[in-house]
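Bit of a strange request maybe. I'm writing a small parser for structure token strings and I need a real example to test against, not something I typed by hand. Could someone generate the tokens for this chain?
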Amino acid sequence: MKKYPALLSLLLLCCFSQATLAQQYFDFESGAIPPEITLSPGSKWRTTHHSLAGAYSMCDSVVPQNTAVSESFSFPVLPSPHISVDTFSALVKFSYGSSVTSTNRFGIFVGANLGAGDTLAFTNERLKSFVLGYVGTGSDDTLRLFYLQNKKLTSIISTKLRCNNATLAICLAKSPQGVFSLSVGANGSFAGMQTYTAAAANGFDGNHVGAHLVTSTTGYKKSLHMDNLYAAFAVRPLQVLSVQRSGARCLQVQLNKNVNALQAANTALYSLSSTGQGWQIDSVKASNGNTLQLFTNKQLISDDYVLSIGNLPAADGTLGSLTHNFSLSVLRYGDLVFSELMAHPNSEGELPEEYIELYNRTENDITLDGFTIASATKTGRITSGVIRAKSYAIIGNAPGVTPLAVSGRPTLIDAGTRLTLRDACEIPIAQLSYSDAWYADDAKKSGGWSLEKVDLNNLEESALNWRAAVDERGGTPGRANSVAAANPDLTPPACTGYKVADSRLQLDFSEALSEESLAPSSFVLDGCGAPQDLFFSLENPSSVTLVFPCQLEKNTSYFLHAENAACDLSNNCLHDFELRFGFGDKPAAGSVVINEVLFNPNTGGVDFVELYSCSDKIAELQGCRIANRKAATGAIDKSYLLPAYTLLPGEYVVITTKPDVVRAQYRCENPEAFIALPTLPAYPNESGCVTLLNADSTLLEDFYYSEKMHSGALVNKKGVSLERINPNRPASENASWLSAAQVVGFGTPTYRNSQYSTHEPSHDDAVSIYPEVFSPDGDGFDDVLFIGYKMPKEGYIANISIFTSGGKAAKTLCRNATLAVEGQLSWDGTCDNGRRADVGVYVVYVEVFSLDGKINKYKKTCVVGARF
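Reply from user aminoacidic:
Good idea to test on real output. This should exercise your parser:
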């Protein structure tokens, strides 16, 4: 680096007056490129005797004819606190023959934010800089001043001097007020220069200067000659160029200068406050030189903020302090809602295509650019669109409605799927898991009718707030729903599941929660106390994680209590809430059993399989499989994987494809005890096999069922489940199963079976009965007579019949049936003619004989009763 004795007066003529400068000046009189200048890899920059000034030295690059190059150089400039005006000057000559094209260009970069390892280039998307030069604008090759950002050049000043083969004297100065003065002299003279001025919104983004040359493979020999490069920059005070929300708890702050990434990570340098509250900065990450990410301790909200930064070390060696005021407008979950879905259109109807309707519940217009709409399998991005206050917007196509511009719109599934609308920061704003059961109308479910939200202010997304449209067109896209009515959410959120890890408990709820309602002190864990911390995230607004001061142990049942906690967005809160939870291992054979099966559902209904935990161990069902077997070979036919689900001792869970349908057709004491699968194995109405496999494909249980196992008193077996009477009895015994009682609606999914009984017939005698008085009336109380037996050895064969007290045959239970050593059979109170037995006394006659000819006969008396 050298002082410049000759150009000082010229520079003072063309630029603002300055104090002592921190400067870089290169006249190349040494015949070598100074070490302060960094060349792009492989470039051919050099010095030559063909100088623009001085004896012989200059910096140029000479490109042979028909050769394409892209090369650059750069050098840093140390800012000085003693100057107020930024200055750059140089002599420049660009030669390219007559090939005035966009592929022959040069640019002098001034104030570039060049990062470590970066190359000065037009194509560097991270680069921000002012650029002097000719950048390929067709036949117009005049010298211009541009601003470069995201590879896009914005023109600021256009001179009248052409670049081709002209030696230009250039002086660029920027005042503290952001006004540029560009002076250009023809024939390489700093005298008689033409001056152009313009204000620019952007300031210098960095402290690097350099040049980039691009040429094509066609045309004459090209060259770029530069000499007497001079640059001096003032120290710029630290400024915040922009603040944007880039996550639920993240602010992205762009500064006007690069900072030291390691030192900038010191959270003590920052403070953030808003109206009425303070915010803690948990961590800081610096990227791209001048960009900070500040991570806060809680969710950002719509408010006015004050950001203070103190003594932040910048890459130019200075310390910067500032206070910056800004505002955020943050959408909350529920500000936008899904209001209508056309999932199954009728191609010949008035609404022939799919669409999704959104509604804006706020008082402000909302720009949706960058929002995403996702189903379970596909995500689309809204590229442009605005949804007006208290108005609707359409994703898809509906006659007479202008849709939002969406790239990759997800396809709706007729049977139902999960939809999520996220804002530009990928934070969920609305979620909906719909089902075709919500139509509550088989004709409309078949196509041509939309699902409409009843009350747009009810944020509990369930069948209780959705209906099939009643408008004669089949839907109401872009206007008020045809089923609109007051239907407020009065139900608190329900706990739908949980996950346990170490001292953490994640609770999942049926709807989004209000963050303001969540406090650790509202929860108490028996034997441990209140959580020491609580985490809530807008990325999953229906979930909260509690951190306890104690370690949670495997195969231990815990009880969590909450009072006035976890409120939904309608302020419905949990009261007297108690959750039993725990975690364990994969189930062992006999620990989890098949407890109830519906294989012949009602019209519009679905099959279900209920599992029951009859062990003192906690069972993790994730990875287990529900399956069926081929009738001909007994081999596994179809099997489907179960998701994560924890089954505690004594608990029930129902596996089905449509929990909403099961809940609608049967009373479910625990409506959250469901595992929803896209598909179940086929369970034919006549007979089949329900199989439960462990995660390693070992057998947990088989249940071979038949419709003949139903009570003979049933006229219609459709919609009637088979219940296991005693979960500890073998599933292979027909006497272990009975039709669900009529008084409970022919099914008991999620709770104890109506026919449940743990009574074991006495084996003091070889044959015993229980109960001696039974009433086969379907009320779930003593509906069946159990006949227990215990043989002295294996191989006995039995004939069992029921007679009236007058000796008339009523029912033949079995003929020549091979018995186990120990077991039981049952009588459901029906006679051979299919009629229910009359009230009265009956005799159970049992004849057993062995292969060696030994015969034993037993008579037991029972009573068929009735309730009055």
